[in-house]
Amino acid sequence: MKTYHPKREEIQQKWWLINADGQILGRLATEIAILLRGKNKPQFAPSVDTGDFVVVINAEKIKTTGNKIEDKIYYSHSLYPGGLKEKKLKEMLAAKPEEVIRRAVWGMIPKNKLGRAVIKKLKIYRGPEHPHQAQNPEEYKI
Q1: Distance CA 96, CA 135 (A)
Q2: Is 35 in contact with 44 (CB distance < 8 Å)?
Q3: 3-state DSSP assignment of residue 57
Q4: Is residue 2 part of a domain?
Q5: CB-hemisphere CA count at 13 Å for 37?
Q6: E strands, the chain, where?
Q7: pLDDT above 70 as % of the chain
Q8: How many CB atoms lie within 10 A of CB 77?
C-alpha cells in the first residue's frame, strides 16, 4: 500500500467563522488548531498545509474555568537585563483579547515553518464585525 501525499491543487481551503462568545478558552483553542491544521479532513498530512482559514469574532467574551482569570500569568522579556514582564489574564483580556486566543492556539501548533504559515490563517477580532464578508465564511458550531 502506498502512502498518500496530497497535492497542492487537491487541497480546498474553506473559511470558517467562530463566535467566541461564552466559549471556554482551551476548548475553543483546540477546535481552532484542528481547523487550521486540517486534521478534520480525510486528506490530512502532517507535512502539508491542508488547513482552513478561521475568523474568530467576539474575542473579548471568552470564559475560563477555575481561578485562571486571576492566577494565569503571561510572560514576555525585552532581552535586556531585568526585562521580564508579567501580565495576568485579566489584564490581557482588557488590553488585547486577540492575543490571548492567538497564544492559546500557538501552543497547540508545531513550532516550525509549517506552524508559522498556519497561524497566519487565523484572524481574530474583538467585536462581532470582521472584514472577511467577501470570503463567505461558514459558521462553525462548537
Answers
A1: 25
A2: no
A3: strand
A4: no
A5: 22
A6: 15-19, 53-57, 73-77, 84-88, 122-124, 138-139
A7: 100
A8: 9
Q: Which amino acid appears at position 76 of this protein?
A: S
pLDDT, tens digit, 9 for 90 and up, residues 102-133? 999 999 999 999 999 999 999 999 999 999 99
Q: Cell 458550531 identifies what position? A: 141
User: Cell for 63?
Assistant: 470564559
Q: What residues form DSSP beta bridges with 18?
A: 56
* CATH number of 49's domain: 3.90.1180.10
One-letter amino acid of 26 = G
Written as nine digits, the cell of 100 is 490571548
Domain that holds residue 133: 13-63+98-139
Which triple of cell numbers denotes residue 6? 496530497
CA angle 113, 125, 11 (to 5 degrees): 40
Instruction: Decide: pTM greater than 0.85.
Output: yes
